[in-house]
Amino acid sequence: MANCCGDDLCKADAPAPSGRWRLALWIALVVNGGMFLVEGAAGLLSGSAALQADSLDFLGDAANYAISLGVAGLALTWRARAALLKGVTMLAFGGWVSAMTVWGVIAGRTPEAPVMGALGLVALVANVAVAALLFGFRTGDANMRSVWICSRNDAIGNVAVMLAAAGVLGTGSRWPDLVVAAVMAALALQGGWQIVRQARAELRQVKTPPPPRFSVAARRR
Domain named Cation efflux protein transmembrane: which ranges (predicted)? Predict the structure, then answer.
């Protein structure tokens, strides 16, 4: 961490761009909240572990966007703390989806592939739109970066859900669905760890004040 600018940490002292940032977060919050309800119901009805995992991801993202709205424009310390909370939430989500996948291996049923494919496509369109909206904020502080990572992981997960639907349809087995759920759990764990690591680094940076700087004139005295 000798060169913090290489990790985008030196940009973290700049205040969050309130207008565009808040609007983007509100749009993302509404989209993710709506998709949680739609995809969650479809996942339960179709028996798809991947859809249920993706719906929980939408719920977690909606909560994360709400937290980001609450700390937008506040000091770096509060934004880093919010990012740390979101990173821990993503780690918890990854653990929950991992447990759900294991349960699906033991007692799951083959999901309905057409429902998986259709909802995966709708979710992909929603997440790509949100990711494009948030793309310009991907190199900000840990709080901004966490929002971008959530959106990026969602889009990747939706592509995986559609591939799982094709696999279930082609094989008549539930294994493609379970494999995708496991991949989504790994993405959540990896993304959560990235966010926690950067947030902790920012908090250490705030707690360690820079050394005092003396002018040349002061030194001559």
Answer: 25-203
Locus of tokens 């005092």: 212
Cβ of 18: how many Cβ atoms within 10 Å?
10
Structural tokens at position 206: 């705030």
Residue pLDDT, tens place only, 110-167: 788 888 888 889 988 988 888 888 777 766 666 677 677 777 777 877 888 888 888 8
If you search the block for the tokens 């997440």, which residue do you land on? 127
User: Which residue is listed with tokens 């959560």?
Assistant: 192
Could you tell me the CA-to-CA distances from 199 to 174, 186, 210 in Å, in that order? Answer: 38, 20, 18
Q: Among positive and negative, which fits the CA dihedral 32, 66, 77, 14?
A: positive
| CA 131 from centre of chain | 11
Q: Copy the structure tokens of residue 18.
A: 């309130």
CB-based contact 69:26 (threshold 8 Å): yes
3-state secondary structure of 1: coil
- pLDDT tens track for 86-106: 788 878 878 887 887 787 777
Q: Which fold has domain 16-207?
A: Alpha-lytic protease prodomain-like (1.20.1510)
| Closest to 119 (Cα-Cα) out of 28, 39, 33 | 39
Domain extent listing, the chain: 16-207
* Residue among 36, 42, 32 nearest 55 (CA): 36
The whole-model pTM stands at: 0.64
